[in-house]
Records
---
Amino acid sequence: MIKVCKFGGTSMADGLTMRRVAEIVESDPARRFVVVSAPGKRFGGDTKITDLLYETYEDVAACRDTGPAFEKVCDRFRGIVRELGLPMDIEAVLQETRAAILREDTPDFCASRGEYLAGRIMAELLKVPFIDARDTIKFGADGRLDSERTYSLLAAALKGKRRAVVSGFYGEGKDGKVKTFSRGGSDVSGAIVARAAGADLYENWTDVSGFLACDPRIVENPAHIRALSYKELRELSYMGANVLHSESIFPVREADIPIRIKNTFRPEDEGTEIVPTSRYTFGGRVVTGIAGKKNFDVIYLDKSLMNAEIGFTYRVLSVLYKHGVSFEHIPTGIDTMSFVIDAVELKNGVLEEICREIEEAVHPDNLRVIRDIALIAVVGHGMTRSVGTSARLFAAIARAGVNVRMIDQGSSELNIIVGVDNENYERTLRAVYEEFFM
Ligand code: ASP
């Protein structure tokens, strides 16, 4: 049995929590490979090491030298090594790191040093080898993971080791420079290591006991989700349930490796298990979870006989493509079509320009923009099997006095997405939660 364990920023926040991590790892011989994040927040209002390192890069870019943010980084790591009583020459490592930051001179390199230093310290604490992700996780010229090289390099590095620590969050680009994943990307690194190790389980250790059926900031005490399928996870985390990076399922899914979310601070809690859809048991529930996000804009088009006009969608999409704008959903009717787009993509006049170009390209009878829309995704394989789910959903929203602005039932039948005005977001979430979970 091989388990790969990834520990997040709060689990790595200080010496005390790192010692806890070491105890968790050492309590189970199957926990062979450990992937670490950089130290995160120790308390509300604290700053993550990664954020301090991005600030460090700004200092380097502006003044050709590291500044106060890097001093804070050094103090955190000195403190951790002191708390752990490790015989490591942390001063020398920090000196080297500073020189490397000045030499390499990129934001990604700078940001990656949190995981690098945390990994070296954790390896020292566990008395096991450290594997630098730069040597083993490789990206291709397109910026995406070079799976073939990565898996063979990683497998070779892990081979024959009883235990090892791998730094999360980064790898090396085709240009030989360090490249990071997007924020929270150590989850992806953990999944890649799990795949390369041929693990039986990918344990993702964080500071919550798994997934909840709804955002606890909005719904009081939401139900705990014991098991999710990969697909449900993808839908929920894409829509804002951010326990796990939404891209971390791809490496493990291909190899059928289940993920278990565990809480470093309550290791006895069962957590949430994420399994391949084929191995998933429904347990009679209709909806697994509800998630959502605010701030989308919808471009709505109608044109008589749109359905018969060949190339209509193609021409609209060409406009979005030209502006490098990606869309989230395209709900369609016979003569209507809407493009739901994250409002961030449409700032600084981009929306106006796109609308003008769409008018020119397809001459719609009507083009309208609906702004400030929140999307709510109701997710669950169980919905396919039960009659009347949408009736219950929309009745609940109506009882809450909320007007539905948009509906999209994904072709997977795994989720129904409802668009409401931003201001009705919280109210709608609560109403839908009550309907399916209370
Ligand atoms: N340390 C990085 C971040 O804060 C990556 C991670 O923790 O997964 O985003």
---
Amino acid sequence: MRVLITGGAGFIGSHLAEKLIDEGHEVFIIDNLWTGKLENLKRIQDNERCHLVIDTILNESVMNELIFKVDHIYHLAAAVGVRNIMDNPVETLEINVKGTETVLRLANRFKKKVLIASTSEIYGKHVDHSLKEDDNRVMGTVKKRRWAYACSKTLDEFLALAYFDEKKLPVVVTRLFNTVGPRQTGRYGMVLPNFVQSALLGKPITVFGDGTQSRSFTHVSDVTDALIKLVNKQEAEGDVFNVGNDHEVSIKDLAHKVKEMTRSKSEIEYIPYEKAYGPGFEDMERRCPNIDKIKGLIGFKPKHDLESIIQSVIDYFKS
Ligand code: UDP
């Protein structure tokens, strides 16, 4: 099969590309290298079934040609990372909204199946333990910049489902919950690579807020397995799926766990949100998926527990 991965040089995209190449598929990648890196494609770049285009997904003629060639599109290109969203609000909104609009419009021209990578951010300020796909969203005010990202991704979801309902375009919407693993950089604020790097360097491990906020972390290889299965499952079309691990951990406990596993002497330092992100920031208190739906359809069961996830990130930074 021929597939296109937008954002294929990114953290998740590059793992997905490797997996699809290993399965014998022909993989086309488009990436503008904003947050993606050529280094991420080191293992597959010389493979004759790997084709890389360095360009923006907003370039319609390039995208038209790529989409025409492939059977499926994994649309992963997006502005990522809370810090990125706080620092570059215009680019975030433009790439997330216009980019997805371009992908869906061109995919519809040739009726090619599209998987949309959305995010658990769209649930907003929910405090329920187990977020279900049909739950209401609880959004903060437009004066708090963080929520712009969630709203842009929500619009992507609406648009994808509208294409399915109105134009019969096969789409699958996936909501990814804090995907982590090797190659994820701490540059855009993500917590685990930052904690591990600080711990290995003996620098303070910086917990933002009081650390009682919690997240559920999923290893990137569990996520890419799920995306491939979902694209190939007809019953997933026109529907939305949480992709995540339902084990929840507080950020404070995560910091202690990283310190213990790296045998680091680093201090754990608490930093107020204002200082960490600047004004206009509001955090999500918790974010844990209900994964009954994806379990029911493709038998999804994350293979990596929190310890093995942290260990894989430690091994990556050590190497
Ligand atoms: N966080 C932290 N220290 C860091 C980076 C992040 O305490 O160096 C916190 C952040 O405030 C949030 C959680 O860790 O509560 C997860 O942050 P991340 O940016 O990884 O993902 P998201 O907020 O999108 O879940």
---
Amino acid sequence: MYVCLCKGVTDRKICQVVSDGARSWREVRQQTGCATQCGKCACQAKAITRQAIKDTIVADTANLAYAV
Ligand code: FES
């Protein structure tokens, strides 16, 4: 789903950027350009970013638990 129409950023793209290592809204914004034009998408994009970071941390923690 498109989150940012101005820059053509989807929720998948945000999740991909987080999966590739971004760990803050600032990093996601810098890498995607999301919310850098009209800014109407910022609230939803931040919420998606927060959830993606949370999911990534939970998955990393689970992987660590299996590795021990
Ligand atoms: Fe994202 Fe305009 S919709 S900057």
